[in-house]
Amino acid sequence: xxxxxxxxxxPRQSLSDFFKYTILSxxxxxxxxxxTFSLYNIAKxxxxxxxxxxxxxxxAIIDISKVIYSxxxxxxxxxxxKKDIQDTYKELANLDKSLELQFIKxxxxxxxxxLAKQKELxxxxxxxxxxxxxxxxxxxxKIISLKQKIENEILKKRNQTQNIIYQYExxxxxxxxxxxSKIQQNYHQKIKSEIDNLYKKYKNELDKYKISLNEIYxxxxxxxxxxxxxxxxxxxxxxxxxNKLEQIKAKQEELYKIKLxx
Length: 262
Prior knowledge:
Elements: H1 12-48, H2 64-230, H3 236-257
């Protein structure tokens, strides 16, 4: 950025008073100097003529014509000095006006630069705001995408876990079914073996019972036949013995039909 030199404005009234007092002081100083110089010249001339000022006071009187002539020169110098001072004042006034115009111009340039910088800064702030908004939207989109991705991963892991659990349960149930099947098979085999043993046992006992019962029936039949032989055909008890014999034969036939069922 361009550096601006700020020139202070010179107060006209203060400058005028300053030059006024300066001129008066200069005038008094020159007057005293010329007066002293005149006295010195007069004293020098009297000394040349071997005149003692202490013994001749009349020679100490100042030549007014010389002083007045000297004042003409002083007035001329003062007029010239006054003119120079006026010219200098005009130059200072022109310089003051020029500096004021230059200051206004540079302040205008400075203001324009400030406005340009302000517009540039406003534009940059607007662009940054848009970038921040876009960045915020991008961050939100990334967060939503990441959240969706995490949810998908969680769902995927859950399905994988459920499948693993299902396979494990399936395998466990399969092993359990195999174990139960083996237990049932062993139990059935054991029961079957026990039943077979009982069947054999009861069959043997039944066979023995049938044999013994058959022997009893045979003996009864033999006894009844003997009784029938010894009984007359007209004996009323013969019919009873025949019926009893038929009953025993029927029981004997029924006994042969009896079989042990498993």
